[in-house]
Design goal:
This protein is an alpha+beta fold and about 250 residues long. Helix content is about 30%, strand content about 25%. The chain folds into two domains: about 100 residues, no CATH class; about 130 residues, no CATH class. The mean pLDDT is about 85. InterPro entries: Ankyrin_rpt-contain_sf, Rho_GEF.
Amino acid sequence: GDSVITVQLTEEDKVEDDVVFYLVFTGSTVQHCTSTRKINPGSLETISPGHDCCETVKVALCASREGRPVLVVAEESFQFVQDEAYDAAQFLATCAGNQQALNFTRFLDRSRPPAADVDFLDEKVALAFRHLKLPAEWNVLGADQSLTENIPRETLMHFAVRLGLLRLTWFLLQQPGGRGALSIHNNEGATPVSLALERGYQKLHQLLTEEEAKEPDSWSTLSHTVHSGEYSVKHHRGLDVYMLTAEA
């Protein structure tokens, strides 16, 4: 989801300015309809939807003109694939509260990837987390909420802060248990807040200590979603396109 899609029109499809093009993605359980913007007379641009599963869907390019019936201009298949970012997000979501798995993630810290790689990883994993269907009872601290805050343990928040993942940290803060994780010490006696300070992550420390910290700049901040029952409408400000998603 949230990738840019470019549509090339054939000569016979290049029509008057009052024609509006949009794409309809039809999956097994969810359908998306996205508006497009014209780059030039022969090219359109839009944003791919965040789908609910990995599958091949039908995509139709439709043309609409006031007072005329909607026309299907072209049809094609479009594949949603499971990439490394999706795998990583799913693994992290599943191992929330699992001490063995969370201790293993500390191994990643020893390699200390370059800043550019961290930024890329942060963006991709945070976006993947947004598109995961997290269970209603999901919690940053894991399923066992009987644990008291006094028990030293590793949390997902420690993981995100240790690697300097600003956007993932912000996402976790918005989830159940996110704020509670800030006061939990790990076996070394560090909280996510003290870890950020110790590592010199000033922006991250500010994010964790400010009451109403804004979401860090990212591809996701360019969009705003409104949910209503089985429907959601998303506006991507960068391209000024809209997306309607409905359960089929």
